[in-house]
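Dear colleague,

Thank you for sharing your sequence with our group. We've completed the structure prediction you requested, and as agreed, I am returning the results in plain text so they can be pasted directly into your records. Please verify that the sequence below matches your submission; if there's any discrepancy, let me know and we will rerun it promptly.
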Amino acid sequence: MTAEHTSPGSTARASARTWAGLPILLLPTLLVAMDISILFVAGPAVARDLAPNATQWLWMMDIYSFVMAGLLLTMGAVGDRIGRRRLLLIGTVVFGIGSAGLAFAPSPEVFIAARVLLGVGAATLAPSTLGLIRAMFHDPDQRRAAVGAWTAAFAGGAVAGPVFGGLLLEHFWWGSVFLINIPVMALLLATRPCCCPNHATPTPADSTCSARCCRSPASCPSSTPANGSPNTAPTASHSPPSAPASPSP
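Please find the predicted structure tokens below.
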């Protein structure tokens, strides 16, 4: 990811390519929130076709939110370890598979299992997209604007879910409210390499080395300056040895 620098001492500002990658990261955020509420309008059609009992229906409605909320912190820590772009790739595939499983579920049990898979994918997409946005935008004002857009997409998706789901149900069967996720996931997979930088927190060994270098630059494994000559500690100039003092009589 490239960034524009205003001056040597200023914070790097995002380039046009970085801003172009922001809407791509907002799309899965929107869908993650939409799938929380989209079943409110698709529920009657799903219940008519799958005929779940009362207990199964509760799990079908609520298991997605339970799984996503329960795994958010865990997946955020995983993204810090393996890289958030890699976590985004994994979440995209899992979310797409879960969406296809929901659309063609033949029974309540399969629907619940696919809803669990969808929740796992959502728990990876939410922290990875937010983490990538924070890594892409270094300027404080631009970062606040980008994080605000992410928050608006997440909040707006929960509101837009019933509206968008109702529009789809007017023309298609209930599985369409889940199949709409697949083209967006395919777009995210296609554009991920050029729009999303990989980012992971340093390993404990790297952090220890960095702390040691801050305390003593001479102990850093690589202390070669930009001109290519190794750093050497300044040596004191040696003056000729003075004559020994004559012994006192």
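Summary note from our side: Strands lie at 3-4, 13-14.

Kind regards,
the structure core
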